Amino acid sequence: MKKHLMSWIVLAMTICLAASGGAESGSWGQINQSLARGADWVRYVENPTDFQLGEERPYGEGTGLKIQAWGDYPSLDGSTVCVPLAMELARQWLNLAEEDLNGFVNFSTTPYAYDRLTEEKPNPMVTIVSRNVMMDDTHPIDMVLGTGPNADERQAAEDTGAELVMVPVCYDAFVFLVGSANPVDSLTEEQIRDIYTGRIENWKEVGGTNHWILAYQRPHGSGSQTAMEEMVMQGEEPVAQSSYISEGMADLIQQVGNFDGEGHAIGYSYLYYVDALYQSGSLKVLDVNGIAPTPENLRIGAYPYTVHYYAVYRKGNETAERFANWLASDEGQRCVGQAGYVTLR
């Protein structure tokens, strides 16, 4: 009883801080844009009884608080870039009010989400505040929404005997960012690797002005760093000074976008994150090999750093399997598209 009450108190404080912009932990500390439902929002789910929450039970006599089981709806965690997707799913299936979405979609970011999935841990900070509900904080998460697991996370799953199933749900672009004043508009894949290994150190070597390149990175284990290491560097080790390691994606956007007004810094992110979740300073997205990361180029695979976001679950979890299959269905894809992602079809 005391455990649940303390969880509730801590969670209520966390939600209030996140709503005011004061929380810097988890995904909400990496978002500064409104994620409110659009005026032209459409309910696409035709049979909302398929995935519903379970029963409520009172928490302590006279408290007015309730604990709710997850029922047939999967407990989610994941990457910051998939927070809007999880919000849209809660709107579609559970008819949650906008005021409840921040508490219900409480993602811990990629590495922590995979740790919870592999170790069968719960996401303990999920509430429906308007109904005084805390979701069952003993139920292990069923699914990660986000970027795929890195080598360490895949090995950790294998070590515990867990087989991870990855179902693609949408496309995105892994993109490189510079200040808008930088005259460089495109880099080749080889130039990007040369910049991040230190073989290219000055912008004039790639058609820019005579200034040192300040190349920002993310910590090992973050979703964007996994893409950088496994997709972009192709076995080469990126070299970075510790002062150019950005702890959060928001930190990287701020550092590149606001560095000096001259566009001497470079960093990377996901296009959806840059467009929809966090804006700071003056940035532009570079083409790669002269190819822009448009939806058409992502779907046909023309942009070289095209990625998927996945619904990832432990094999044998029937609730997660059904939900992932629905996400890949025509109806699920309409919901994915309404949340602003590039759909599979």
Which percent band covers the strand fraction? 15-25%
What count of helical segments does DSSP give?
12
Q: Assign a percent range to the helix content.
A: 25-40%
Sheet having the most strands:
7 strands, mixed
General description of the model:
Strands 3, 6, 7, 9, 10, 11 and 13 form a 7-stranded mixed beta sheet that branches. The protein has a 4-stranded mixed beta sheet with strand order 1-2-5-4. It is elongated. The protein folds into 2 domains: 2-8 and 46-169 and 309-338, 3-Layer(aba) Sandwich (D-Maltodextrin-Binding Protein, domain 2), CATH 3.40.190.10; 172-299, 3-Layer(aba) Sandwich (D-Maltodextrin-Binding Protein, domain 2), CATH 3.40.190. By secondary structure, the protein is α/β, with parallel strands linked by helices. The protein contains 12 helices and 13 strands. The model is unreliable at 1-24 (pLDDT under 50).
